[in-house]
Amino acid sequence: MQKPLIIQSDRTLLLDVHCETAEKARQAIMPFAELEKSPEHIHTYRITALSLWNAASAGLTPFDVVKTLKEFSRYEIPNGITEGFSLLMSRYGKIIMIQNDDEADKLILNIEEKVIRLEIENIKALEKYLTKTSNGFSLALTDRGTVKRELIRAGWPIQDIAPLEKGEELEIKLRKKSLCGSEFIPRDYQITAANSVAGSSAAGTGFGVVVLPCGSGKTIVGMLIMSILKTNTLILTTNVAAVHQWINELLDKTELTKEQIAEYTGDSKMVAPVTVATYQIISWRPDKTGDFPHFRLFRERAWGLVIYDEVHLLPAPVFRVTAELQAIRRLGLTATLIREDGEEDAVFSLVGPKRYDVPWKDLENKGWIAEALCTEIRLDLPVNLKIPYATAAPREKYRIAAENPLKENIVLQLIENHREDQILVIGQYLAQLNSIAKLLNAPLITGKTPNAERERIYSSFKKGEVRVIVVSKVANFAIDLPDASMAIQVSGSFGSRQEEAQRLGRILRPKNNNCNALFFSLVSGYTVEEDFAANRQKFLAEQGYKYSIQKWENK
To answer: Which of helix, strand or coil describes residue 522?
Structure first.
C-alpha cells in the first residue's frame, strides 16, 4: 500500500488525500505542522519553529515527530532535516519559568546550560528585566509576559510552569435546553477544543489558542471552558454588537443571571463576575502619549480566566497589559492565526500555544458549516476612468478600481437573480457603500452607525424583515447572522487574507434548508485590484475553497 506523505527538504509535507491512510496521517502530523494549502488532491503542510514549539508544549518529543514522519513517508526522508527538527524542539524546555519560593512577587528563569545563560545575559532588550542568579535569572511577576515575548523573538520559547491564579470562584453551568426551548448539546470537536485548553489544572495547562472556522461555534468553546474552570471571567471581543452577542449567548446557554454579566464598552462601563468588553475601549487613551485608563478593568476583580475573541486582532497596546496577565488562565479564539503585522509569535508567548485546530473543509464535510461556492466576477473599468487610473498614484489606483461604478449594475443583477437569499453587500469605501445602499433602498451599517441602530438592523435581518443589508468592514468580525446565505464583496482592505476569511465566515453557518453559501467578489480586471484579490483569495484556496472566475460583459 502506497504511503500518503511526501517530505521535502524545505520542511514542507505533501499529503496525497487519495491514499487510504491520508486521514490517519493528517491527524498524526497536525500537532507539529501547519496547514498551508488544501486544494483537491495534494494538501501542503509546513513545519516551522513555531509549529514545533507548539508540539513541544503539548508534550511531543523530536522522537515522536520523526517516528510519525517515518511511518507515513512515501520516500526516504531528506538527509539532515530531522536533525533540524530536533535542534528546534530541544530549545523548548531549556528555559523554564518557575515561582520564586522566597519572594512571592518574583519568578525564576531556570537555565541549566551556561552557554544559554550567557546568550540571554547579552540580549539588550532584557537587561532591565532580568537579575542574575546562580542557575539563571529572576524577574518581577509583572514582567512575565514581556520576558517571554522577547525570548521567543530570540528563538527561545519559555516553558512556563509558574502557578496560575484560580481567581474568584463562580458557579457556571450549561443548560440542557436553551431559553428558546431547543436542546443544547455541544459538538464533539467543541468539547475536545475546550478540554485541550483547560487541561488538568497541572502546571503548564490552562492557556492556549483554539483555531476554528467562522460559524463553527467558537463562543460555545469559550462557554465550555468557563463551565470547567468555574471562575470570574473577562471576555474581550471586537465590537459592541459582538459584546451583546456574547451576553445573549451566555444568558441563553448557561444558568448565569443578568446580574452576573456586565457590559464594559463606550455605552456602559459596568463590571460583574462575567464582564464582556471591546478591544477598542481597552486600548483607548486620550492622547498618543497618555496612559490607557481602561487597563484598570484587568485589575477590577480577581479574574480567573480571560477570553480573547478573534485573538488574531489583539491590538498592540493590549499586548502590554496581556503581558502582565500571565498568572491568569487565558483562551484565544480565532478562525485564523494569520496576523497582517506578522506578530503570530506574540500570540504564542502572551496568550499561549495553539491547542486545537481543525480544517474548514472537515467541518463542511460533516455538515457543521455550510458548503461555500466562491466566484470572482471581473469587469472592465468604464472608459472615462481609464486615463485617471493610468495617471494615478499607486494607492489611488486601487481606490479607483475598487470603487468602479459599474459594480453597482452587477450587485443589482446578483440580488435579482437570488431572490430567496439573505444577502450581505460588504465593502471598504463609505462613498461606494452609501451609493449602493441608496440604489438598493437597503439599510447601511458603518462605523458611524449607533449601536442601537446596528442591532435593530441586524434583528430585522435575522427575522427576515430585511433581505439585504449593506455593511462596511465593521461586519467583518464576530457578527452572528445565521441566516445570511450570500455575500457580495464590492471592495476590500487591499490584499488582506484575514479579511477574506472573515467575510466568507459571515455566511458559513449551516442553513435549515441545507443550501450552499454563495460568496461573490467583484474585481476590476487589468488593474491592481486583480493582484490584491489574488492575495486575498490565497487563504481560502489554501483551505480548499475554489474560486471560479467569470467575466462580466458591460452592456
So the answer is: strand
Instruction: Report DSSP state, residue 238.
Output: S
Assessment of whether the complete model's pTM goes beyond 0.90: no
Residue pointed to by grid coordinates 506574540: 346
Nearest to 151 by CA among 339, 385, 350, 446: 350
Of the candidates 395, 383, 308, 293, the residue with the CA atom closest to the CA atom of residue 350: 308
Q: What is the pLDDT of residues 406-464, one digit of tens each?
A: 999 999 999 999 988 889 899 989 999 999 999 999 999 988 888 888 889 988 988 88
Provide the residue type at 16 as one letter: D
Reduced 3-state DSSP string for 18-49: CCCCHHHHHHHHCCCCEEEECCCCEEEEECCH
Selected residue with higher pLDDT from 338 and 258? 258
Strand partners for 34: 46
Burial degree of 465 (CB within 10 A; 0-12, 13-18, 19+)? exposed
Cβ contacts of residue 439 below 8 Å, gap of 6+? Answer: 408, 411, 412
Sign of the CA dihedral 227, 231, 232, 237? negative
Side-chain-side CA neighbours of 466 within 13 Å: the count stands at 21
Contacts 24+ apart (CB under 8 A), 104-109: 104/141, 105/140, 105/141, 106/138, 106/139, 106/140, 106/141, 107/138, 107/139, 107/140, 107/141, 107/144, 107/162, 108/133, 108/136, 108/137, 108/138, 108/139, 109/136, 109/137, 109/138, 109/139, 109/147, 109/158
CA atoms in the 13 A half-sphere facing the CB of 158 = 30
C-alpha cell at 203: 502546571
What is the C-alpha separation between 424 and 461, in angstroms, rounded? Answer: 10
